[in-house]
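Project outcomes to date are best conveyed with an example. Our students and postdoctoral researchers have been running inverse folding experiments weekly, and each run begins with a structure described purely in tokens. The record below, which covers 205 residues, was selected by the lab manager from last quarter's runs and is presented without edits.
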């Protein structure tokens, strides 16, 4: 699925660190945007493509852990921490909150590049899943109420005859609704439809 080129965001109040990270990350082929504070970063609109956030723990306004909490809804933007003053409790808190990595300054270039690569892959995968879910939701919304009823019963394991009996319609009518429903959902088989329904949380309805 095509996206804008990946962006690595860096939030660090040390200008020399920002510059060195900028050179390193650009040399690895990624676009980079740097910020000197959490508030500067928060003022930036959300990225349209895959991205990750390389974040210092100690910042002049909000600290890195607070910023991580504020952007927790941005599941498509994994966080990598770098710090010169790390401790076990801080690292544990960051990792429990979903950080990809917690690195200590001076950062080893290979470790940071590897963490960024992992984060970008994770970001791309989350965006792909979100886009696929939006497609499924749109397809499901296009179904008539009767087609939705048929789908719910079919994915729960009912045969056409049982679906007809439960809905009070003929088996022939069930087959017609089922055929239209399968086409609208772009489902090529019953197992594929079941997987779609599982993604839409229909199986337990």
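After processing, the design step wrote out the following sequence:
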């Amino acid at each position: 699925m095509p996206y804008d080129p990946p962006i690595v965001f860096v939030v660090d109040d040390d200008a020399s660190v920002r510059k060195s990270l900028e050179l390193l990350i650009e040399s690895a082929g990624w676009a980079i945007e740097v910020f000197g504070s959490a508030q500067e970063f928060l003022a930036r609109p959300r990225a349209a493509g895959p991205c990750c956030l390389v974040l210092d723990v100690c910042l002049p306004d909000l600290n890195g852990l607070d910023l991580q909490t504020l952007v927790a809804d941005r599941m498509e933007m994994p966080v990598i921490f770098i710090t010169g003053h790390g401790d076990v409790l801080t690292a544990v808190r960051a990792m429990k909150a979903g950080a990809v990595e917690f690195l200590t300054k001076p950062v080893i270039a290979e470790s940071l590049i590897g963490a960024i690569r992992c984060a970008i892959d994770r970001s791309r995968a989350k965006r792909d899943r979100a886009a696929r879910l939006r497609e499924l939701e749109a397809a499901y919304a296009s179904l008539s109420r009767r087609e939705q009823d048929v789908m719910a019963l079919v994915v729960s394991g009912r045969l056409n005859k049982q679906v007809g009996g439960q809905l009070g319609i003929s088996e022939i009518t069930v087959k017609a609704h089922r055929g239209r429903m399968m086409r609208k959902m772009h489902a090529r088989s019953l197992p594929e439809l079941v997987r779609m329904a599982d993604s839409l949380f229909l199986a337990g309805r």
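Residues 85 and 156 are 54 Å apart (CA to CA). The longest strand covers residues 51-56. The training component of this project remains on track.
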